[in-house]
Amino acid sequence: MIPPHPRVDLAGIVVDLMDERAAIDALVNRPTDGNPLAVISANLDHIVQFGHGGRWRRTLGDSLHPTHTDADGQSRPLEWLTLLDGAPLVAQADRLTGASWPRLAGSDLVGPLLDAAEKAGLSVGFLGGSYLIQRLLSRRLIATRPGLVIAGMWSPDRSELADEQSSLKLAEDIAAAAPELLIVGLGKPRQELWISKYGPATGATVLLAFGAVVDFLADAIQRAPAVASDHGLEWAWRLAREPRRLAKRYLLDDPPGLVQLRRHSSLLSADAAVSPPPAVGRTIGPPRRSHPSSGTGHDPALAAVPHHGRSGQFAALGRPVDVAVLVVTYNNEDHLGALIASLRQEAHALRIRVVIADNDSTDGTLTELNRHPDILQVQTGGNLGYAAGVNAARRKAGETEAILVLNPDLEVLPGAISAMLAVLHSGEADVVVPRIVDGDGNLTPSLRREPSLGTVFGDALFGGHWPQRPAVLAEQDSAPESYQYGHEVDWATGAAVMTSADVDRRIGAWDERFFLYSEETDYFRRARESGARIWYEPAATVAHAENGSGSSVQLQALMAVNRVRYIRKHHTDVTAEVFRCGVVLHELLRSFNRDHRRTLAIVADEARWDALPGPSATRYPAKVLGGFPAGSVIIPAHNEAAVIGRTLDSLEPVLRTGRVEVIVVCNGCTDNTAALAAAVPGVQVIEAPVASKTAALNAGDRVATQWPRVYLDADTVLSPTALRRVLETLSESPVLAARPAFRYDDSGATWPVRAYYRARRRLASTQQALWGAGVFALSREGHERLGSFPDVTADDYFVDRLFSDEEKTVVPTPPVPVQTPRETRSLLNVLTRNIRGPAEQRSAPAPADATPQGPPFHSDAAGPAPRQTAVGRTADTPADAAVSSASSTAWELFRSIRGPRSAVDALSYSGLAATPRLARLRQAGAGTPSAPIAWERDDSSRRPEGLPR
Question: What is the pTM of this model?
Fold first, then answer.
């Protein structure tokens, strides 16, 4: 045990303050039968690497967890002693303590240390430096210190240090030579990490991480003049001597450490000063274990857990488990067998439940799954995307300690799940990702940094040509050490992610808007924002076949587009647009490749983003009908004979379940709408004499008996999958109102109409509110807030205003096709109606608890009116309302312009939207009485040629 001495915390580095004599005595007199001691000489680079915000924070031993496991699995504590080096650290320590402390750089300390070792008869070993440098060092030591006992010198190359088996063999060779002092000069952070993981296996009593000291001892590198060292300019001397090697460190990496040093430094208390000496953070990961079934190294925490059922079997729902494994499949017949077999091996030691959500596979995936009755299957009813599949499986996870999300094209190597779970048990982290190798066992780079403007332009300019570039310019972490040692990370590829169940609930559902790609980036970001720590654990390994979901230009473009969508979600519009430029630049610089040219065309034209892969309806509705949630569908219909048939056809499979009641309210019909609806078995038909949509909705409410309730326009086709997802969302979550996703179908429309809707697609507000899809739904509690539908034109807009953003949601579903007008005149008619509806509601007080949430409803898919700025605010005149309407969306429309085509679309949108508004202003200015209200319905989309093919 080292005698008590003052200690300071310098930006997360706990430094032991000593003079040279005390340090030499502590090292030379270290008991050989005690714990091995690792010695660090901390400078500014050490702060950057291991301090607050450093990549390797919390990766070395601390006073709370000083233990380490050596190569043969036997626990051998490793203690740490951190000495003061670097002029900025010395100045900060002096300021905190009010005393003057010397620099104890390894290059200064090694000479007196070797003198003391020679006098005490201690054997010394040297690890690091080239073979030539070591030969020079050997000759010099023989000449200057003939009595020094040299146990050996080892000069491994980087490939050996990056390989675990080679490192273990190296440690064994060193142990055979039996050095008592081992000087390790491998460079930061490699030397500290290597000592932490393999140091105890060397058998050395003291291991010293002294950087380039071997080169200094051999006179291969000239030391800085005393005048430079005395004035804190040794770094400048070294930079001038070796600019290519040291420029990145001194000019890019180290300066941020100065800020950290000032912000996060403190003098430790006297109690802390006498505790066992730590360095930074914790030991690297959990103790390395063999596969639990082998009977060696099994975690006692896991051994204490009783197993239910036969070994190798998966637990049924209703039983508590250690890990719930969630897998999303889509045509993965070729890979699924290997994954399941590897999971069964893990189930010999752990209680595992396997839940597989299938996204409408059309190959033999379901046949393979049916061979395993102990696997819980969830049929999503369509290709809803990876995130939606994960969420569907999450709902069936049951009582579990941890949730493990796996790609279907993985194979879990023995002990991987146990090793990841052990990290959660140790308290090291809340989210764990494993090491990933390909089918041939080669490492797959899987660790990533948070996307930023620096990383997107760095990746665009350099790609894979400069893998070791500064972290600010690279999203992918390519450093070999990053994959050999456990540490905290920003995020990793989502092929394998384990999260403690409590933290997973805190993070919440995966964001289904991404469909595929970037959903894991978003999940990890939200994890970090919730306070969770994400840990990379190399002791856990999975093999990834990759491309299990296929590859295409469309998927490549979706990956690029979703990166932009991710930035838009978490950053400002300006940042997102600059980031998008970086993505465009990436594709542009590689446009000599045909696939990149196609991706470039899609990324550059936002109007084409809707055509990228997204949620699609199932071709097998029977899959989604089992256990269908209860609810009511109310359809107001006024002379809808042309379209009511296809609307009810889409609901016919749901009607057969007996779980959903469908009510068609024919309000003032003069055609045969009622007869057509009554001909569909199970449909209730109500005939109301007044041609009022809101009266029809209230009439349907009086008859309906089920909750939640879906209000569906008679010309809107709602798939069974979309209906199920909406009902489940309102039944299983706290939201009060919801609608499904939708898309505009402008096929057969005139050019001005298509331009109008291209511009409209680019407006974010069209994706956020309840209006626009021809369908919305309310829970019982949400309907209680509504009461009954008032006599207004835009019922969707009225309902949307009742709920805050947290109380309503857009459910990611196969998109509902919204038919746009086919003719320009029809669009103008609808726009005229859409001005009147919101104006009516502005002139009337809103409900007391209502919160305006975005543009008003535009039935028949017309364009957005403006945002209201205050609940219950009344426009002074119709002209005021119109002017307010025109101005509130102008900025959003302007920001949607991305190039010449989008500019033309925006002009078309503005012109069409302004035409009925100007007419209304002229009427108001002339004092012309308003004409009797007529219902401006779009009949162009209801004609047979307007129906979807």
Answer: 0.69
